[in-house]
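Fig. S4 source data, part A: sequence.
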Amino acid sequence: MSEKRRWYERVGPGLITAAVVLGPGSIVSSSRAGADAGYGLVWMLALACVVMAVYTSMGARIGCALEESFLQFLSKRWGRPIAVITGFSAFFVAAGFQFGNNLGVAYAMEGIVPAVPTQVWPILFTVLSIVFMVMAKNVYHLLELVMRFFVGLMLIAFIGNLFFTGVSPVGLATGLIPGWFEEGEFLIAAGMLATTFSAVAAFYQTYLVQAKGWHKENLGYAIQDAWIGIGILGTMGLVIMIGAAQTLHGTGGDFKHIGELANQLTSVLGSSAGIVFGLGLCAAAFSSFIANALIGGTLLADGLGLDPRMEKTPTRLCAAAALGIGCGVALLTITKGIGGAQSVLIAQTSTIIASPLCALLLLYFANNKALMGNLRNKTMSNVLGAVGLVILLGLAVRTVTIVWAKIYGG
């Protein structure tokens, strides 16, 4: 029994990474995938999770190999400018995703407590997140505990739903076979990829394993932890997709509203489905709120040459800034009906820079013999890493196309 307890206590960095990625966007995209395509996009989710696990493992190995933080190492090797660019890029990605988290919280709580003004919720969640970071003495340890609670809560809710909706073994097996996208499925698949495979979160894994106190002798724990965390992420996405496929697919809805997606829980929760689905979105948002802000705060502080440790003032201030920007843009969008397109434009543009850049840095240094020694990537890791990089570059090209069309009306 004690061995099981020690194993459980070892799990942490990978779970935090999963919680970062598992935000409202992941829940909504997995629900939309099941509702629109049934089991048809299971293979895409599986591919995204495998590639994410490979990159997270790279981050874990690099973190164990380094005696200093990744951006400190990078600045010594290639100069401070590349570290600053990477830090600012990750910060703006974090701020952009905070905007999405705030909207997820706002509209989820609007359906649960309609009497309270929608604008209250982003402010409340942002203040709670800042208080969490300021008051916590050991931010990493407390972050682990909070992530375990929220991720566990969501797993129980959605897996419990499968006992009522059932699962189609044939549909699941067929869905694992890659195929062409049906009309209208590409955007859903792209959204699911973007919300499952986060190179910035994988990059941050280097910092999490160091915060955990792991070194080369702990490599086995770090790799195991990375795969467990992404396994939980994939399981969550899959059970949500199955629930939506079983209850919503073929019903004729457009599934653009949270209320429609919440109907996947109606069979078990009845009229309470909207409330529980909304609470699930809030749990996902709050877990992502804190961890995502710390990514932006840590990498910006480190890129600027400041102390990147979670409990130190530079990281907390930078993280609070990411929270504040996300909250401010969300409030502007909700109250004035403006700013949404601009904020999404900023988030997308920064992602173009940060995600491929972080993926390239991970892939390059995971193959660096002088740094990694026998911890270098094996052939399969490089093959899957190349696949992930191509996916990110493809999404970047698509984003450039969309941004160009928004600016020039093409």
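Fig. S4 source data, part B ends here. The longest helix spans residues 80-112.
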